[in-house]
Specification:
- The complex is a heterotrimer of chains A (72), B (117) and C (324).
- Helices cover 65% and strands 0% of the residues of chain A.
- Chain A has 72 residues and is mainly alpha-helical.
- Chain B is mostly helical.
- Chain B contains 3 helices and no strands.
- Chain B starts with a helix and ends in a 24-residue tail after the last helix.
- Chain C is mainly alpha-helical.
- Chain C folds into 2 domains: 79 residues; 180 residues, no CATH class.
- The N and C termini of chain C lie far apart (52 Å).
- The chains are: A mainly alpha (72), B mainly alpha (117), C mainly alpha (324).
- Chains A and C meet through helix 1, helix 2 and helix 3 of A and helix 1, helix 2, helix 3, helix 4 and helix 5 of C.
Amino acid sequence: MDLINAALSKYVYVVTIFLMVAGLFVVVARANMIKKLVGLSIFQSSVYLLYLGPAKIFGATAPILDSDYTAY
Amino acid sequence: MEPLIDIVSGVFVAAGAFFVLVGAIGLVRLPDLYTRIHGASVIDTAGAGLLIVGMMLQAGWSLVTLKLLFILGIFLFTLPVAGHALARAALREGLEPKLTHDRRAPAGDAPDAAEEA
Amino acid sequence: MELLISFALFTLLGVVTVAIVSQRNLVAVVILGSIYSFLIASVMVVLDAVDVALTEASVGAGISTVLLLAGLKLTRTRDYRGQDPNVVGALLAIAVGGALVWGSLVLPPFGAPDAPIHQHVAPRYIEGAGTEIGVPNIVTAVLADYRGFDTLGETTVVFVAGMAVLLLLRRSSLQSAPPSDDEQPAMSGDLVLRVGTKLILPFILLFALYVQFHGDYGPGGGFQAGVIAASAVILLGLTLGLRRARRIAPPALAHAMIPLGVLIFAGTGVATMLLGGDFLEYAVLAHEAKEGHHLGIMLVEAGVLVTVSGTMISLFYAFVERGR
């Protein structure tokens, strides 16, 4: 149960790394330029996920100051 | 009152989700592009409409409800126009619909109708 | 519940990515890329990053798809060459993946409030946005005020990229034929599309202005608003004909807007220097520090709006001119 919890809590990083690897593979291994561009966009989005994943707090809200919420 | 609103909005959201599922199955299983657009339009109108009504019930009387109403208006207006554009582009490119009996006039309403089915 | 939604979205992302890697039809790849961008925007909303989600949805699922499809129109639509199994590429990707997995072992668990990322810089900005600047959207406060210099760099990057693409794609006035009178795209002349576009266009522009000026109080800001405004012009060009689009948003104006935004942004910095403060120190712009911050943020966001929308419109015109 603890192992499952630990695995689930890292799922976002698994997805980030999978997207990064997939984007890198498309850029390196496919010859067509349009595909390379889409692969680059996949890679770029995975970098966004890399920044945003560790910053999430359960029960917090978006970073817009509001009197109803205390955590962002 | 609160649990009643929750139950009713849950029913609406569930119905919307059901219609989205039906539309998705239609997108995959229907035989032709033109029939698949029918499947997609079910998602646009029934699915999105019921989901948004469910969300409006959850939001209560607030600004969020008004914004959801605007979003519903935009969905109901633009998504069928997009489906129409898709079908028109396909017809102009020459994609013939799979018909068992072609009721189109011999002169051809569609720009690229070459022969009757 | 949040966990469940994010799991479902992550799984969908994985499926779409596998489809993009293996598809051969390039139109399908571009549309799958648009679906991917929309899913990433949803994931970002679940991760509470609403500004980034709005930008990703408008840029990735909107403008990028249109420009890629315009590029596809100029080339072929099937990937004929590259489906042979690329072992070196796969090994490289797996090696990089292994290194990343090893690096991610020290990352904090998902959703923990005591992660180091929340301890040092973030509380300073969260408090400062309320007290020093008075802008509820912390992201806009950080983007336009605390890290305004970086945003100036970003706007300059957009400017340089737009210039580079225009230099590559635009034909000189000697080479290109003058715009003919009957250059109607295939979609025009259809009543439903014309009426639909004419009805929805003012609301798109209104929404762009709403996103721009409401960026202090909700998700929004210059980048998103610029992209939405540009998408209105692109819709106009696609459905009502390029001649009318050129009359309403002239290409010369779009080309001039690209550096004008950077000028507005950097000009705000120079104005603050002339008024006695440092570069981009907004507090000197008005009598009271908070008013100065508000004015400064409004000016720089306007600069970003002008540059981004000018770039997107110019790119669209450059692609379409090339295709004639």
